[in-house]
């Protein structure tokens, strides 16, 4: 049974729940994706503490509940994790296997509706408003998806159902693990008001602290606060957006396709490095690889993030937002090098380094004003293909060529765990 906030009469199957006309959004997320895939491949490890990651000097990629009980968490240095849970079984991550399961997951959802928005390797939004005529109410569709995921992929998933993407995603978080939570439109406001502001995915630690300084810790308090006060705390645009979300106002449609949030690469050194020129060369290599992946996907970035892991197990991050989007390795490297130079290592050696590109957008839909040197020297088409020979050497497939003159912008339980709120999803 879901542990999510409910109305007083929740837990009872209301007549017509989710079955009347109106917008119906599902958020489906595979439970503990990486760890679940590894356990499905190695059923003999079920019930044992399992850590997914490189056994030597890497970080924890994922951990089973049995390992988490000892304090093991993702992104934790493997050495620390093994100190907390020395009896854990360490499994090397197999990213090819995860990609295969993710692709199977998308195919499964695509059989339900074409309105599928992939937002992560193991999660997606579905607009099933039109699919109800074929498959029945959203609750029936959710159970169908859970059954197919269990049978075809050998793992479990959780489903949130709401009238907006915001509510559906929050509902699935409260339905974990292996459950369904329905929040019909009439119950939306009551559902949101009991949640902390940190439940909104766009609220990070700094925003949460800024709101807390003004006595705003719940979505009820956020909704009841004057917009101007919230805007003074977090900014004009962000403040108005947060108040809208607190009231459940989220008009974003489900956009079919895969939406990359970020592309990044990192590497752990075999031994801690004190020579910063070695670190800089590694950053150059990582930015080239990151740029190649963006070009292969036809993406450009506006935000560059550099992560440096030090010998005391800390990870320091610095970021910068660019004026114009780019997919150029040299541009990424120059920014990354400046960011790296601004990190105070306090005399510590470097354990790992990573580069990540955020705020990604598709090249054809990005309005990009060329720099003066670009306008004066190389045609846009020639500049964009300049990195392709290096990409081919690396084995990175190139993206679809752009027409001349086109814009260059860039064994699991099958129990039912559905929770019903007795109201119509309309």
Explain how this protein is built.
- Helices cover 37% and strands 20% of the residues.
- It is of the alpha/beta class.
- It has 3 domains: 20-184, Reverse transcriptase/Diguanylate cyclase domain (Alpha-Beta Plaits, 2-Layer Sandwich), CATH 3.30.70.270; 194-246, 5' to 3' exonuclease, C-terminal subdomain (DNA polymerase, domain 1); 260-394, Dna Ligase, domain 1 (2-Layer Sandwich), CATH 3.30.1490.100.
- The strands form 3 sheets. Strands 9-5-6-1-7-8-15 form a 7-stranded mixed beta sheet. Strands 10, 11, 12, 13 and 14 form a 5-stranded antiparallel beta sheet that branches.
- Helix 7 (165-175) links the parallel strand 7 (157-162) and strand 8 (180-182).
- Helix 13 (276-297) runs antiparallel to helix 14 (329-341).
- The protein starts with 24 loop residues before the first strand and ends in a 7-residue tail after the last strand.
- Residues 1-21, 371-383, 398-416 and 420-426 have low confidence and may be disordered.
């Amino acid at each position: 049974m879901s542990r999510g906030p409910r109305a007083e009469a929740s837990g009872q199957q209301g007549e017509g729940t989710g079955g009347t006309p109106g917008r119906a959004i599902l958020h489906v997320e595979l439970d503990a994706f990486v760890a679940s895939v590894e356990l499905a491949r190695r059923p003999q490890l079920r019930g044992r503490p399992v850590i997914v990651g490189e056994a030597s000097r890497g970080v924890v990629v994922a951990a089973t509940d049995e390992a988490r009980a000892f304090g093991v968490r993702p992104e934790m240095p493997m050495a620390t994790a093994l100190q907390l849970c020395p009896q854990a079984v360490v499994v090397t991550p197999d990213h090819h296997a995860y990609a295969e399961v993710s692709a199977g997951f998308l195919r499964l959802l695509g059989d339900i509706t074409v309105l599928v928005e992939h937002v992560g390797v193991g999660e997606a939004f579905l607009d099933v408003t039109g699919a109800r005529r074929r498959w029945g109410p959203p609750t029936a569709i959710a159970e169908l998806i859970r059954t197919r995921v269990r049978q075809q992929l050998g793992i479990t998933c959780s489903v949130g159902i709401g009238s907006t993407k915001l509510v559906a995603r929050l509902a699935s978080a409260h339905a974990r693990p292996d459950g369904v939570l329905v929040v019909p439109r009439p119950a939306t406001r009551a559902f949101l008001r009991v949640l902390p502001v940190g439940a909104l995915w766009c609220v990070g630690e700094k925003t949460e602290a800024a709101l807390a300084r003004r006595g705003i810790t719940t979505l009820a308090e956020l909704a009841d606060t004057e917009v101007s006060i919230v805007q003074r705390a977090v900014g004009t645009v962000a403040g108005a957006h947060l108040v809208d979300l607190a009231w459940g106002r989220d008009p974003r449609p489900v956009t079919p396709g895969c939406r990359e949030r970020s592309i990044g690469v990192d590497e752990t050194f075999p031994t801690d490095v004190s020579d910063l020129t070695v670190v800089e060369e590694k950053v150059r290599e990582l930015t080239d690889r990151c740029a190649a992946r963006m070009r292969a996907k036809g993406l450009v970035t506006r935000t560059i993030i550099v992560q440096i892991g030090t010998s005391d197990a800390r990870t320091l991050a610095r970021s910068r937002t660019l004026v114009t989007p780019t997919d150029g390795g040299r541009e990424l490297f120059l920014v990354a090098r400046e960011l790296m130079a601004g990190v105070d290592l306090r005399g510590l050696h470097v354990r790992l380094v990573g580069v990540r590109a955020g705020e990604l957008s598709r090249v054809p839909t990005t309005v990009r004003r060329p720099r003066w040197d670009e306008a004066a020297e190389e045609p846009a088409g020639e500049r964009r293909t300049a990195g392709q020979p290096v990409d081919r050497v690396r084995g990175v497939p190139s993206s679809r060529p752009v027409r001349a003159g086109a814009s260059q912008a860039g064994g699991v339980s099958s129990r039912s765990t559905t929770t019903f709120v007795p109201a119509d999803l309309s």
